[in-house]
Amino acid sequence: MEAAAHPLADAARARHWLTLSFVIFLVALVAGSWPRSVGDGGEYLATALNLAEVGTPWLNDADIARLHAETTGIRQLESWDIKSSMKTSWKYGTHDFVHFWFYPAVAQPFVSLARAVGANPIYGFAAINIGLLVLAFWIALPRIGGWLTWLVFAGPIIWWADKPHTEPFTFSLLAIALLLIEEAPVWAVISAGLAATQNPPVLAMVPFAAVALGARGAMYLRRPAVWIGLVVAFAVGCAAIVYYEMRYRTPSLLLSSTLKTLPDLQAMLVVPFDTNLGLIAAFPVFCLMLLMALAVMAVRPMRFATPAVVLALLTLPVFLMSFAETGNMHHGGTPGMSRYALWLVPLGLPFLRELYGAMTEPLKTVTAVLAIVSATVSTFVFHPKHPDNYREPTWLATTMWTTYPAWSNPLPEIFVDVLDQTGAEQLPMTTAGCTKTLLIGRGDSQGMWPVACYPDDIPPECRQPNVLCYANLTSAGYIFARTHDVQERFKYDPTRVWHHAMEPAVRRVLDSVAWRTLQPGAALAGASALRQIVGIDAVHTLEGPDRLVVAMTGTREGARLSFRLPAEMTATFIDPESGVETPAGAFDGTPRDIWALNVPPNHDVLLLVLRAK
Predict the structure, then answer these.
(1) Domain ranges in the chain?
(2) What angle do CA 99, 101, 105 make, to 5 degrees?
(3) Which residue has the higher pLDDT, 127 or 520?
(4) Phi then psi for 582, rounded to 5 degrees?
(5) Which residues contact 365 (CB under 8 A, 6 or more apart)?
(6) Cα gap 536→502, rounded to integer Å
(7) Cβ burial 155-185 (10 Å sphere, 16+ → b, else e)
(8) Longest dimension (CA), the chain
């Protein structure tokens, strides 16, 4: 008996040490960051502060004035207009935030403690976030093993550890629900109910849990405690609905920011598969382990009928539909990844559990290596100190749009947001080298191609007014793909396109220099021959060792370009409107010497072609 106890004791010690290591890991991450609010964090912070000071989650005008003074010292809340984030109750005349107050109520004691010791109140949220993540980590360890647990919990979720936001709350409670559904179904469904207080779609997990438990047999559903747990969980999850119905005659204040139509399949698949926001792009090792788990389970198909797997499979389409219903799919948070993708990670835990139960020694070694690599990369990429970065394409999106553009046609709002730093939402929009271009239909009277691009023939279905189409460059030319919807939110910018009448002349010029063999200056960066621009609104170049094309828009008095050309060249200005060509002199100096060229003013669009002598 004594010898048999050793393995259990060793496992218990390992569990304690691994959990302690995770606590130290999270504390170190928070210590290496700085307290700040992101997204809706100001709402949760203000609610917790109000609960601490006056005991109510709703605010009156005096509360708003007081909280405004308290939050102006918080980073990213310095100029926050609190009232603009609130709704006024028709019945009571007080104000509520659109996000429910349960999470800040849980954090409130920790927020009060932080303030009592003179610390930033955001550290109170960091404490509850760490506590929930550690609890879920502790529960996961014996069920999916140490390496898979570290893989999951040292992933993108760590970015949220120090922020007043519900992501660690939702992530942890979903993980607990899916890990305990068979062994402790009451705690599992209550965890799902608690998560639903902040995110109404999670409420669907409560009835799904009853179905999932019934999939294993009637034994679970004969237990009164399970039914009591289901009722309690559903009641807890409905707390927000009851609250807002009583005060606002609506089940949720979030409904005003959601779409009113059923989403299509493309929108539903954005969160898992999009090359910018998707789970695969941001957490590839986790997705690889899921594929391995599915391969293992395919050999034993009965494992797809376990309560946890059934619950995950039933919940997945509900989550995907709710993600697609949001009015702003590209909302930021979690650098390079949608925060909604974090909800999908716990849904993978039942599959990882099946993988862990079937692991051989070689597979354990592979898992250990992959987990170490993933956790190390995630620690750097998703360190809490980093800002949310959603205005730049990910490495995967850049690769796809540059090399295989026809393979990925993202939602227009995502494509525009990551390429346009101004937020003006004006089209057309294109990548460097025009490998992928989003066009907006203008009929036959207006130009549609950006000045940087070759103005190829556009099919009639893409010329329809306001219809959006992707033009994807292949070795055979452009192929066109109409997007899934007509997007009225985008504006046509006539200053960035070739006028329709110019297109034949532009095609003739670009064909004459074999434009497909040239490199876009935007991709060359510091190696570009163009060194200075004066008095011109926008300039695009295509460059090679013996020729160079410069497309300009908006030339003014005193316009000038400076080059470091690789060889002696002659220059010609071409007015694409009239087709008139004007010699512009020649560069006869030493290669890479500075050469300045005056540019004719008052041209909407102008071409400059330089050819080696």
Answers:
(1) 140-381, 395-497, 515-612
(2) 150
(3) 127
(4) -130, 120
(5) none
(6) 19
(7) bbbbbbbbbbbbbbbbbbbbbbbbbbbbeeb
(8) 98
Determine the Cα–Cα distance for residues 289 and 285; give it in Å rounded to an integer.
6
Q: What is the pLDDT of residues 459-514, one digit of tens each?
A: 999 999 889 999 999 988 899 999 866 557 788 999 889 999 999 999 999 999 99
Residue 173: in which H helix or E strand, if any? helix 167-180
Residues in the chain: 613
Provide the 10 A C-beta neighbour count for residue 394: 21
Answer for the pair 483, 470: CB distance below 8 angstroms, yes or no.
yes
In one-letter notation, the amino acid at residue 344 is: L
The arrangement of secondary structure in 515-612, i.e. its CATH architecture, is: Sandwich (2.60)
Cα distance between residue 233 and residue 267, in whole Å: 30
Which residue reads 């429910």 in tokens? 100
Q: Give the helix/strand (H/E) hosting 14.
A: helix 2-31
Cβ(602)–Cβ(555) under 8 Å? yes
Q: Mean of the pLDDT values across residues 254-270?
A: 83
State yes or no: pLDDT of 415 exceeds 70: yes
Residue type, 588: D
Q: How far apart are CA 206 and CA 217, in angstroms?
A: 17
* Cα gap 151→154, rounded to integer Å: 6
Tell me the pairing of strands 426-427 and 491-492.
Answer: parallel
For the chain, the C-alpha Rg in angstroms (whole number) is 29
- Residues 252-260, mean pLDDT to the nearest whole number: 82
